[in-house]
Design goal:
GO terms for molecular function: amino-acid racemase activity. Keywords: Isomerase. Belongs to the aspartate/glutamate racemases family. This is Aspartate/glutamate racemase family protein. With about 230 residues, the protein is an alpha/beta fold. It folds into two domains: about 5-105 and about 220-229, Rossmann fold (3-Layer(aba) Sandwich); about 105-215, Rossmann fold (3-Layer(aba) Sandwich). Helix content is about 55%, strand content about 15%. The chain contains ten helices and seven strands. The protein has a four-stranded parallel β-sheet, sandwiched between helices. The chain has a three-stranded parallel β-sheet with strand order 2-1-3, with helices on both faces. Helix 1 (about 10-30) links the parallel strand 1 (about 5-10) and strand 2. Helix 3 (about 55-75) crosses helix 4 (about 90-95). The longest helix is centred in the first third of the chain and has 19 residues, at about 10-30. The chain is globular and about 50 Å long.
Amino acid sequence: MKTLGLIGGTSWISTIDYYRFINQGINDKLGGVNAAQLLLHSFNYADIAKNHAANDWAKTTKMVIDSGIGLRNAGAEAIILCANTLHLIADEAEQGIGLPVINIATATAKVINKYGLTKVGLLGTKFTMERAFFTDRLSAAGIQPITPNPADRDFIHQTLMDELGKGIFLAETKARYLQIINSLIQQGAQGIILGCTEIPLLIMPEDTDVIQFDTTQIHSAAAVEFALG
């Protein structure tokens, strides 16, 4: 079994799920008392959020590379960035760390292709919805991504920062998310990507009439596949 290096804390709420899903995935495959070989570097998210607010991705990139090198030196054989948004710098991180970075968008596109869908809605931070790092990989796989309107993107981003990332899950916030999802379905979305690791803590599979793609679970499964490959 290969050792995986997790870069988390963005947020710690969802990093817990990564730890659980990867360990459960290994145990499902190997049985007994088997669990994953994991190393974790967990950021103080306030430092990352400060960089985001200043649009200082160079500083975030350096932080991620430095932490990844530390994990590599401790024995990690691949890196898992435990957040969709951090994949904006995944290619630079992979080059700087010198280890494979298992890409969340690539893994998600692969699963969507298995279902034969060609048009999906994408929810996430504004970085995920508006930058090309996620949507380009979907497009390259023959999948057309559609995102909410600007006001809805602002709402999703704000609630991810101020509520979901702090473990706060409000009924009125969930209702608004479901309205946004229904709007994307009306625009032709055949499925919905829950493209921020906190969103699946708010929106459940039974809440929508179309399939949901939980990127946390998909990414964790890809990590398990690498560890046992």
